[in-house]
Amino acid sequence: MHIANNHSMKIVYCIDSLVSSGGTERVATTKLNWLASQPDVKTWVVTLAEADKPFFTLDKKVERIMLTATPGNKKAYKTELESLFNRIRPDVAVSVAGMSTETLPRLNYGSKKILEFHYTKNFLVNFVNGMHHIRFRQLHLLKMRWLQWKLARNARKFDIFVGLTKRDVGLWGNPENMTFVYNPLSFRSDKKSDCTAKRIIAVGSWTPAKGMDQLLEAFGPLSHRYPDWKVDLYGSGQDKNLLLSIIEKYGMSSQVSLNQPTPEIGKELVDSSIYAFPSRSDGFGLVITEAMECGLPTVAMDCECGPREIVTSETGIVVPDKDIDAFRKALERLMLDESIRKRMGEAASREVVRFYPENIMPLWLELFKK
Question: Are 262 and 234 in contact (CB under 8 A)?
Answer without folding.
Answer: yes
